[in-house]
Amino acid sequence: MSKVFLDDARNLKDKIKLSSIDVTITSPPYFDMKDYGHTNQIGFGQSYEAYLNDLQKVFKDVYDATKESGSLWVVIDTFKRDGAVVPLPFDFVREISKTGWKLQDIIIWKKDKTVPWSKKGATRKIFEYVLFFSKSNEFKYYSERAREITDLKEWWIRYPERYNPNGKSLEEIWEFSIPTQGSWGEGYIRHFCPLPEDLVRRIITLTTDEGDLVFDPFSGSGTVPSQAAFMEREYYGFELNPEYLQMFESYLEANLVTRLDSYRASRITLDENEFKKKIIDLRILKYGRVLAKKMKSSGINVQKMFTKHSEEPLNKKHDIAAGHYLLLIEPNNTSLTDADIITVINEIISVPPLSKFGISSKFLLSRNLDEFAELLPDNELFIYSHNNTHQFVAKPSASNSFIYSTIAVNINEEIYRNTK
Ligand SMILES: C[S@@+](CC[C@H](N)C(=O)[O-])C[C@H]1O[C@@H](n2cnc3c(N)ncnc32)[C@H](O)[C@@H]1O
């Protein structure tokens, strides 16, 4: 059913069923500044009142075509006219609130690359508004997915201690570059400022499920419908200019297969409980590895260790998991008693970085390989090397068998990179 219509957005009632849209993401045509090359275009050649009226009409129809759980995201900016700023975002909110839309949030889209000039009386423009409206109070909004779509990428794998396993909430300033390349060429980009793909993806992830309907009444180069297609959502759009529609169609055709593939590969990161468990597993394993490194700096050589996730009560309020550690201490550290070594360990774990891991730890020491081996559980054990606790060793050898654990972590970082 997905389609971008070569038609006026003011005709949307004829094409789109009532209560069918899940999310609308759009940047409306500018007021009287850009000529998009069509007599029916909204904005160019109109009075400000007529322009606002037309926008109000379109967004009233979008409201009626939206499900109760749906939302609307509008990227919009102020502009200067006759020597004074016209507060379009605020006028827009006032007008479309009359049609029923509830303003939920105002987000700042910070552009990191901007025109390096400013005019008298104006600071350099580096942001636009993203207005987020809902139809009802029961709108779809998956805040727990925010952690996936902030700056996590592969970093949580190597630095699990930095990420709260319960997720990370989104901030109200979003930083995305202005798109600089695309199959439609530089001239188009300069003229239109298409929306950044990442911004559109973020909104789709936050507000929809696969199969949901994404809409853009002013599709332009088709960033919104193409991202919807890449993320297995349905889409509808309107665009007056046949050249832009053509650009969208060729872009979609050229990229759909590869982009769907990478979307499917990245999708596996989205399960909340799985993420939480992985962060805990990664922290327990890394805690042991970092501890051994610190002990070595204090002159105590840990030859091997065993660790497991324990269900024992946590020591401190902010701890997130308990870990048991069995350390095989090199026999020639005999000058130190077990009590001495435990004192050193307690000093190490009471300060950062280990004090920040949120791990309640318990230790057992051994000085003998046979005894160590005997203390290992019968369960299947996974083996990690000295410098990697996010991927167990496929072929253990004397040199790469350092940490033994009942915890199985095998994360291929490549999957989490460049999910485009
Ligand atoms: C700011 S641009 C949208 C850019 C788009 N978000 C992108 O990523 O490329 C606004 C678009 O609205 C289109 N437009 C203007 N008046 C229209 C109308 N009455 N119906 C449908 N589209 C219209 C223009 O041709 C232009 O492509």
Largest sheet: 8 strands, mixed
Cα shape:
elongated
CATH topology of the largest domain: Rossmann fold
* CATH architecture classification name of the largest domain: 3-Layer(aba) Sandwich
Sequence of secondary-structure elements? EHEHEEEHEEHHEHHEHEHHEEHEHEEH
The distinct ligands, each listed once, are: S-adenosylmethionine
**Cα distance spanning the termini:** 24 Å
Describe the strand arrangement of the main beta sheet, using strand numbers.
1-10-9-2-3-7-6-8
Number of domains: 2
Secondary-structure topology with pairs:
Elements: E1 3-6, H1 12-15, E2 21-26, H2 48-65, E3 66-76, E4 79-81, E5 84-86, H3 88-97, E6 102-110, E7 127-134, H4 146-149, H5 155-158, E8 173-175, H6 186-192, H7 197-207, E9 213-216, H8 223-230, E10 234-239, H9 242-266, H10 272-297, E11 302-310, E12 321-329, H11 338-349, E13 359-366, H12 369-375, E14 382-384, E15 403-405, H13 413-416
Parallel strand pairs: 1-10, 2-3, 2-9, 6-8, 9-10, 11-15, 12-13
Antiparallel strand pairs: 3-7, 4-5, 6-7, 11-12, 14-15
Helix pairs in contact: 2-3, 7-8, 8-9
S-adenosylmethionine binds at residues 8-10, 27, 29, 36, 40-42, 192, 194-195, 218, 220-221, 223, 238-241, 244.
